[in-house]
Amino acid sequence: MYRRAFFTTVAVLFVVIAALAVLVSPWWHLAWVVWLALTALGIKDLSSSYNVLTNYPIVGHLRYLLEFIRPELRQYFFESESSGRPFSREQRQLINARAEGASDAMPFGTLRDVDAPGYDYSAHSLSPKEVDQAHARIRVGGPQCTAPYESSIFNISGMSFGALSGNAILAMNKGAKKGGFAHDTGEGAISPYHEKYGGDLIWQLGTGYFGCRTEDGRFDSEAFKEKARGEQVKMIEIKLSQGAKPSHGGLLPASKVNEEIAETRKIEVGQACESPAAHPEFSTPKGLLAFVARLRELSGGKPVGFKLCIGKRSEFLSICKAMVETGTYPDFITVDGAEGGTGAAPAEFSDSFGLFINEALPFVDQALTGCGLREHIRVIASGKVALGYDMVVKHALGADICHAARPFMFAVGCIQSRRCHTNQCPTGVATQDPRRSQALDVEEKYQRVATFHSATITSFFNMVGAMGLDSPAQLTPHMIQHRSRYAPATSYDHMIGPTLSEGELIRGEALADPWQAHWQAASAERF
């Protein structure tokens, strides 16, 4: 029926245009151009592979047009202050206000549904304290580290050059330099954009060993040693997995491997660049720790740790067993949340694999405590840390330091358009298109990066003090109330299960479930 309507419409318009051209004005002959274009489009639609276009020639394109602009319609017209994902409009506005140095005050009370599942809150004290600014820094470096780093408690998480534009990297690193905090390189190696302003770097080594790899993709110790001993590199982070796509490799398409990226990563121009799912340099927990020790020696004694998204709990306990058996410790462990992050990933991996950060942190903290290792190792939380209260929660659940990625993207102009993987970022943040990236003014945005960092730590300290505490180290899971359903909230210490005393896992005592099963399944010889 709709196809007949199309041909009927074409015939009627033919007659109408012909009549108008003869009876009204010769100018109506110009309408033949539009008629021919629409008729050709309609005939093409009749044989389209899209069912809608086949049944609804021409008109069906309206459906795809509306679908194309649907994200923008939702974000700008229909999204509430708190309903946006992964970051709400309320969060984004607060980040931008802090980046601009503007007031973060909100009138007329909270917009949150405080009775809804997922709501977290804390109890304040009638005896508030002032937190000493000395707590804004913390030493990273265990007993085997000879060049420890005095780290900020809030740093930029791993985002690679290639994923982000050169201007975005410049703005972040210059902001880190001004604010005195660290900038994680991501697995894409140390680029000239990381080096230009001299901000402190955490060099992340992924499975592709970019920046220090041989032609066949293996680890090049001499290339690593030369760069790792540079003054700007403060810490080394081995990436085992990331929350966006745990246990999944990556592929940088050949079309994106230009000369600049190829030189930075030490790969071939115009050839697809693959990151394997696992490290070729080791395959066991003991092998991982031997690699940690090797990198520490090559770097001149700098702090070396690893980043992972927690999956099978027994596998993390295998690493803990290997620490106990070998006496080799990482200086820090970065816990990435399964919430995902800046890296584009298969949707089902982001949605369905890994532990979310608020479950993973207390597990890691307890596992290290139970093995008697916690005092030697700093725990870094890297997942959905955007505001001061996020830092309160993460420190209470076991973190010593927080890292954030997407909030710093907002600080340099990101609008959460979610086009990061298309090379068509509208703000020039996540693109290698020079015409788009030039819109990002480094001299303006680096100030926002530094201001956001400072304001977030100030907010964090203000809330810690309001809870009657002198130091973030005094935060515990008991201080965070979580509403899991429409009912009275319970504290996180009731949600995370049985806690472990110092060294309890290695004393050979009977353990409470589920620790007993996970510990028995763990082995230092295998993951």
* Shape, per Cα inertia axes: globular
- Tell me the total number of β-strands: 15
- Strand order of the biggest β-sheet: 4-13-12-11-10-7-6-5
Give the DSSP E fraction (strand runs of 2 or more residues): 5-15%
Helix/strand structural class: alpha/beta
Description:
With 527 residues, this protein is α/β, with parallel strands linked by helices. It contains 20 helices and 15 strands. The strands form four sheets. An eight-stranded parallel beta sheet has the order 4-13-12-11-10-7-6-5. Strands 1-14-15 form a three-stranded antiparallel beta sheet. A two-stranded antiparallel sheet has the order 2-3. Helix 12 links the parallel strand 10 and strand 11. Helix 11 (285-298) packs across helix 12 and helix 12 packs across helix 20 (515-521). The radius of gyration is 27 Å and the shape is globular. The mean pLDDT is 89.
Observed structural traits:
8-stranded parallel sheet, alpha/beta, 527 residues, single chain, 3-stranded antiparallel sheet, 39% helix
